[in-house]
Design a protein that fits this description.
Blueprint: E1 4-14, H1 18-26, H2 28-34, E2 41-47, E3 55-62, E4 68-78, E5 82-91, E6 94-108, E7 111-122, H3 128-151
Antiparallel strand pairs: 1-7, 2-3, 3-4, 4-5, 5-6, 6-7
Length: 152
């Protein structure tokens, strides 16, 4: 099977300063709160080393059996402005995809603008790009809800 690729970008305007938004984006316990894409799913951080060259690992999927293991490697961290990292997704012994993610946070009059760019390399077929985009869409909706709750 060949490697299929895709790319998508998303933007959200959130009612938090860049520093407060950065905390939500990068703190392991905060990522667990907004990262699972839907009810009945979980994102559990097993290891977090937020520094250039650092690695994170989390599990995600259905709450009763989170089948996906995600290994993150941080390549650029310029808090609270931008970050670049890869996430490699495994199911059991199989690697199914790797993504390159870039966060860019810009101050606005009422908070922050978050731009997220994701490049996907799928090793299991062309449908993975859409699945990653749907997961990020749901996760960023959760992030927006959490940001609104914290701003209130």
């Amino acid at each position: 099977m060949t490697t299929d690729t895709g790319h998508f970008e998303m933007t959200r305007t959130l009612p938090l300063t860049p520093e407060r938004l950065w905390h939500l984006l990068t703190d392991a316990s905060m990522r667990e709160r907004w990262g699972a894409p839907s009810e009945g799913t979980v994102l559990t951080v097993e290891a977090s080393d937020l520094r250039v060259g650092g690695s994170d690992r989390h599990r995600c999927g259905p709450a009763d059996a989170p089948e996906f293991t995600v290994d993150t490697r941080w390549y650029r961290i310029d808090a609270p402005h931008d970050a670049a990292f890869t996430e490699t997704v495994h199911v059991g012994d199989d690697t199914i995809a790797t993504t390159l993610v870039t966060y860019r946070v810009t101050a606005t009059d009422n908070g922050s603008r978050l731009d997220v760019a994701v490049a996907v390399s799928s090793f299991v077929g062309p449908d993975a790009d859409g699945e990653f985009e749907a997961g990020w869409t749901a996760g960023l909706s959760n992030l927006a809800a959490l940001a609104n709750e914290m701003a209130a």
